[in-house]
Every structure is written in C-alpha cells, then in structure tokens.
From TrEMBL:
<protein>
    <submittedName>
        <fullName>Transcriptional regulator</fullName>
    </submittedName>
</protein>
<dbReference type="Pfam" id="PF13560">
    <property type="entry name" value="HTH_31"/>
</dbReference>
<dbReference type="Pfam" id="PF19054">
    <property type="entry name" value="DUF5753"/>
</dbReference>
<feature type="domain" description="HTH cro/C1-type">
    <location>
        <begin position="20"/>
        <end position="72"/>
    </location>
</feature>
<dbReference type="InterPro" id="IPR010982">
    <property type="entry name" value="Lambda_DNA-bd_dom_sf"/>
</dbReference>
<dbReference type="InterPro" id="IPR043917">
    <property type="entry name" value="DUF5753"/>
</dbReference>
<dbReference type="InterPro" id="IPR001387">
    <property type="entry name" value="Cro/C1-type_HTH"/>
</dbReference>
C-alpha cells in the first residue's frame, strides 16, 4: 500500500508542535512554570505543546516572549492558514482574487456578513472543537470579509433566506448587533442585500447554499455548501446551472428596499416577511 500523502494542515501543525516541544525541553520549564510566566493555564499550555489544542496567536506570542524567540506566532499563522479543509483552501484563495460575488444560504447568515459573535456561537456548536480552535476560525472568517469593506471593496449580491433570520442567537444583544450589521451592509453602495421569503416555494438550492465568484479573467467558480461540507465547482455547464438557480432565488426575493424594511422590523421585534 502506498504511503498516504500528508496534508498541509498536518505538516504545518507538526512543525509548530515539534518546535514547541524542542523549546520547552531546551528551557527546562515545567508547564506550571510556563503558566506563571505567560498567565495561561498549565493544562492549556500542555495541550498546546502536545498538539491537542491549536492555541491562539496571543498564547504563541506569550511563548515567543518566554522562549526569547520570534517565530512561534508566525508558525501558528501558517498552521492556521493550512487548517482549511482541502476544498476550502482552494476556494479561499480564489475568494481573495474575486472582483464580484453572489451568495445565498438557506439556514444561516452567510459567512461574509456574520459578526464575530454570530460566527463564534455557530462555530462553538461543533462537539469536538475547542474554544481556542473556534476562536481561530472566527478570526479567519473576519479576515475573509476584508474585501467587502475596504477601500477596494468588491461588488456583492447577497440573498438571505428568511429562515436564517428566524433563528436568532442565544445572546439577544449579539443578535441585535448582527441585525444592525446587516442593515449597515444593506445600505453600502457595493452591496445588494435581499431576503427570500419562506413562502417563495421550492427552488434549486433548497436546503443548501452557494457562493459564486467572478475572477479577473472573467471566469466564474462556485462553492456549493451543505451543513458542514462544501464542493468547489468550476465546470462551465455546472456553473451555468448554478447561476440560473441563483437567479431563480434572486427573482423570488424581496427588493433591496423591502428587505431593509424587514430587517428594521426584525430589529424592532416583528419577525415575518409577510408583515412588511
């Protein structure tokens, strides 16, 4: 049987873990001593050094200071970047190059419009994900939003299913912040935000989601998403079908003005599209 090829995730993380172990052995510090020097819990530091926890940039910066090094946080950043699943690493690279995009998700606020609090509550629902890992993923998600709000913001059309808006966060203040963020986004010149009413009927993307990216050379690619999986699509025929499916959703959605009114009413406590 041929040897299994290692992934970028494993390679990057193994380098970090081996370096942490080497530095601790060379320093002679116990985990209790490291805890006193960094103000991090000893058991947390042990999990970090053994690879059981991905850690955080602040923790690695603290260890850089203790070990008189300057590369641990950089290794963590590399490990974090490699931490995407294989399909998503490629999509993230293309996403950073996109000049315009269109998004829809059936049950969640699309990631590119999530607040940190929304993303955090969502990502922490994974039964085997530590708080440190979830926090690193939140940071990544926030970084991915940069090209929507910077000086060179791209054009984006985003459709949100009403069902996603009927599933608020457990933290009511954080949910109010998410709605405020959506209203702010809806009024940005580069963003068109629409809501698909729950009574819009069946459509091609029922139960899933899609992100369509238009690249500088004119090529379009799509990311089809399920609850916790995704598939990158670049075949021209499949892209055309996906684009037409997205157009079907967009045509059944409320207008941008009506959608903003729905968000305002939600913020005031009125939850349904049919009450606009």
């Amino acid at each position: 049987m041929p040897a299994r090829k290692s992934t970028g995730t494993a390679d990057a993380k193994q380098v970090l873990v081996k370096e942490l172990q080497r530095l601790r052995e060379a320093s002679g510090f116990s985990y209790r001593e490291l805890a006193e020097l960094t103000n991090y819990d000893a058991s947390y530091l042990q999990r970090l050094h053994t690879g059981e926890s991905n850690g955080s940039p602040e923790a690695l910066a603290a260890l850089d200071n203790v070990y008189s090094t300057g590369h641990l946080r950089g290794l963590w950043e590399l490990s974090k970047s490699a931490g995407f699943t294989k399909y998503f690493r490629k999509f993230a690279t293309l996403e950073a190059q996109a000049i315009s995009r269109a998004d829809y998700h059936a049950s969640l606020i699309p990631g590119i419009l999530q607040t940190a609090a929304y993303a955090r509550e969502l990502l922490r629902t994974h039964p085997h994900r530590s708080d440190e890992e979830a926090e690193a993923m939140v940071e990544l998600r926030m970084e991915r939003q940069a090209n929507l709000f910077g000086a060179e913001a791209i054009i984006a059309r985003i459709v949100i299913d009403e069902l996603a808006l009927l599933r608020p966060l457990g933290d009511s203040a954080a949910w109010a912040d998410q709605l405020d963020h959506l209203m702010d986004c809806a009024q940005r010149p580069n963003l068109t935000l629409q809501i698909l009413p729950s009574n819009a009927g069946a459509h091609y993307l029922v139960g899933g989601g899609v992100s369509l990216l238009w690249l500088p050379a004119g090529k379009c690619v799509a990311q089809m998403e399920g609850t916790s999986t995704g598939q990158l699509v670049d075949d021209p025929l499949d892209i055309e079908v996906t684009r037409l499916g997205y157009d079907q959703i967009r045509d059944r959605s409320l207008s941008p003005v009506e959608s903003l009114n729905v968000l305002k009413k939600l913020r005031e406590g009125t939850p349904r599209c049919n009450e606009v």
